[in-house]
Structure formats: structure tokens, C-alpha cells
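Exercise 7.
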Amino acid sequence: MRIGILGGTFNPIHIGHIRGAISTYETFLLDKMIFLPTGIPPHKKDDVANAEYRYEMIKLSIDGLDFCEVSRYEIDSNKVNYTIDSVRHFKNTYPDDELFFIVGTDAFYYLSSWKKHKDLIEIVSFIVVRRPEYDTQIILNKYRNIVNFQEVKEKAKYRAEPKTVYIYTPPAFDVSSSAVRNKIKRNECIKYLVPEKVEKFIVEKGLYR
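Solution. The predicted structure, written as C-alpha cells, is:
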């Protein structure tokens, strides 16, 4: 199988996450997309919702998307998780499959600060999901000596190879988790920014107030 692993805090998950995952799945001709919510973020923030709530919101969001699932690996570990450890877990779980770890351009910029990042690029291919307004030349200049970048512009079965980073620009969705949280704090409408079931869940639990 060809498997995409989409890691993140998902605080909360929003339409941009969902549509980005679907678009990446279709463009890279993947067989499965795994959402991997952070249990205890390495750089924990005060406004990060309970892990179980974030997990439940992802489940609500992907209901009906048969190619999507959500992993409890980091949540159930009850410790701070690093990408290298999670990737090794999935490599052991799917030893004969092609794995792609999916991150945003802003997160990938800080790759050099990640635990054992040089080991990480040796064992998994990255798909860097680019926002249209982001200048990818910044990360190209920063990491061109340790990874091979490839711009993705059409559907294909791109190979999962060591030290390979695919730059992919999905259709634009001008939304972020921080923007959603700020709207909730200001008592503004978040309809259509998050799935309807997630909006209802946030209201019921009183999250981000």
C-alpha cells in the first residue's frame, strides 16, 4: 500500500486539513491516509485542547471517508512524542508499504530542530503541503544540501524514497486552527470553517473559550 501519515496537533481540525488530506490522497494516488494527532506536543501551549477531544473531532471529521483513519499511537503513549519515533512505529507496522509523512511548509522549516532529523529523512519521504502565499525558496535554500526536492504538479504514483521531499500546493483554503480558535474567543461564527459535527462538538464541550 501507499500510505500518507498526516501529523499535527489538529487544534481544532478544520476544513483546510480535510480538503488538503483529500487532495494529497488523490494527487499522490495513495491507498490510505492516517491522521496522527499529537498526544503531548513537544512545545505545549496553554490553548491546546485535551487530546481525547482533538481525537474525537478528527473522527467526526473523517466519518464517511473510507480511505481515512485516525491513529491513537501518540495519544496512548502518554508521553511527549517525536516524529522520528512515530515514523519508526509506522515503518514497523507497515514494513512492506510505501510511507509518506505529510507536513506543512511552516512546520518543515524547523526540520533541523527535530530530534534526529538526519536519521528521519533517511527512513521516510516527506510531502510538504505548501500554502500559495508561502515562498518555498526559503526551505529549498535551507535544506537543499541534505534532501532532494521535487515539485508536484500532476497526479502520479510518486515513489517513497529516502531524502526525498515532495512540494505540493493543494487548492487554497484560507483557514487555520489559530484563526478558528481566535474566532471562537471573539464569539464569531466558525460555520463552514470546520465540519458541522466538529462545530457542534466544540460548542457542547465549551472549547477554546
